[in-house]
Design brief:
Strand order of the largest sheet: 1-2-7-6
Shape: elongated
Number of domains: 2
Structural class: mainly beta
Length: about 140
C-alpha cells in the first residue's frame, strides 16, 4: 500500500454513521475511469445537476440506454447497425460501444434524458428530505 491510498479511517476519524459514503469514496479512488465518451457534469443552482456526454455517431434513442440501479447511473451505447452505403475517406467520429457509470448520492434522482445534436443530456435533481434540512433546536432554560 502506498502513501497516497485513501483510507477513510485515517482522514475522517471524527465522523459517525458515514460508513457507506466513505466506502464508496474509497472504492472510487481505486477505479480507473474510461475516457470515452467525454462528459461534463454541471451544477445548476443548489439542487440540480446535468451530465452531458458527447456521443456523436449515436443518432437514435434505440442505441442508448440510461438506467439507475442501487444509486448507480448506467449509460450504455450500442451501435445498432453500421451504414455500409457510405464510402468514408476518413472516419474520425467514434461509434464504438461504451458503458459509463456514475455513482449517485442517496438523495439524487434522475429526472430525464435527451439526445440532441450528438450530446446526451441527463438531468438530475437532489431531493432533500425534511429530516435532512437544517432546523433550529430550542434551548431550554
Amino acid at each position: 500500500m502506498n502513501d497516497y491510498t485513501f483510507r477513510s479511517s485515517n482522514f475522517f476519524p471524527f465522523t459517525v454513521g458515514f460508513d457507506r459514503p466513505l466506502k464508496v469514496l474509497e472504492a472510487l479512488t481505486n477505479v480507473k475511469a474510461p475516457s470515452y465518451p467525454p462528459y461534463n457534469i454541471i451544477k445548476i443552482g443548489d439542487e440540480n445537476y446535468t451530465i452531458e456526454l458527447a456521443i456523436a455517431g449515436f443518432n437514435s434513442k434505440d442505441e442508448v440506454d440510461v438506467s439507475v440501479k442501487d444509486n448507480v447511473l448506467y449509460v450504455v451505447g450500442s451501435k445498432v447497425a453500421v451504414d455500409d452505403s457510405v464510402d468514408y475517406l476518413y472516419q474520425g467520429i467514434a461509434a464504438r460501444d461504451f458503458r459509463r457509470e456514475f455513482t449517485l448520492a442517496d438523495n439524487v434522482e434522475v429526472t430525464g434524458a435527451e439526445l440532441k445534436d450528438g450530446i446526451l443530456t441527463i438531468s438530475l435533481h437532489r431531493r432533500i428530505p425534511e429530516e435532512m434540512k437544517p432546523r433550529q433546536i430550542p434551548v431550554i432554560k
